[in-house]
Amino acid sequence: MSAVNSKPKYDAGRLMQVLVAPVVSEKATMISEKTNTSTFRVLQSATKPEIKAAVEMMFKVEVKSVAVVNTKGKSKRFGKSMGRRDNVRKAYVTLVNKPGNELNLGGEAA
Predict the structure, then answer these.
(1) Which secondary-structure segment (H or E) carries 84?
(2) Cα(30)–Cα(20) distance, integer angstroms
(3) Shortest CA distance to 57 belongs to which of 22, 96, 9, 91?
(4) What is the DSSP letter of 95?
(5) Domains of the chain
(6) pLDDT tens for residues 3-52?
(7) Which region, left, alpha or beta, applies to residue 83 given φ > 0 means left and ψ of -120 to 50 means alpha?
(8) β-strand pairing of 63-71 with 88-95
(9) In sequence order, which residues have a C-beta less than 8 Å from that of residue 23 and are 6 or more positions away?
(10) Ramachandran quadrant class, 69 (left: phi over 0; alpha: psi -120 to 50; beta: rest)
(11) Residue 34 to residue 57: CA distance in whole angstroms
(12) Residues near 57 by beta carbon (within 8 Å), at least 6 away in sequence
């Protein structure tokens, strides 16, 4: 009973949790200006189709592609004890190059 060209359905509650936070750094800003790509921290268990669906649902834009990077947390010393930073999963979301198809993460009005 599966349709060939239908988009998979995702739970809206799950999609609201997939994107943890936008990455605001010099590197992310430079990539954003050059290639119309936004960077987000996402859940460790998030998949590329889920990330695409979440961005399209939350920001009402059309996504061209999603690239995912897993960064292992560094071991750090806190006084006498050793600690470890959390592992981070980042998603680079490229938008389709159309007028009005852009993300405004700065908070200011366009």
Answers:
(1) strand 81-84
(2) 21
(3) 9
(4) E
(5) 12-95 (3.30.70.330)
(6) 555 566 788 888 999 999 999 999 999 998 899 899 999 999 999 999 99
(7) beta
(8) antiparallel
(9) 39, 40, 41, 90
(10) beta
(11) 24
(12) 12, 15
The type of residue at 33 is E
Q: Are 93 and 38 in contact (CB under 8 A)?
A: yes
- Residue of 43, 25, 39 whose CA lies nearest to 67: 39
Give the position of tokens 């290639």.
35
pTM listed for this prediction: 0.82
Separation of alpha carbons 86 and 89, rounded Å: 10
Q: Which residues contact 21 (CB under 8 A, 6 or more apart)?
A: 40, 41
Q: What would the two tokens of residue 66 be? A: 């999603």
Token pair 């349709």 is at which residue? 3
What pLDDT, on the 0 to 100 scale, is given for residue 10?
80
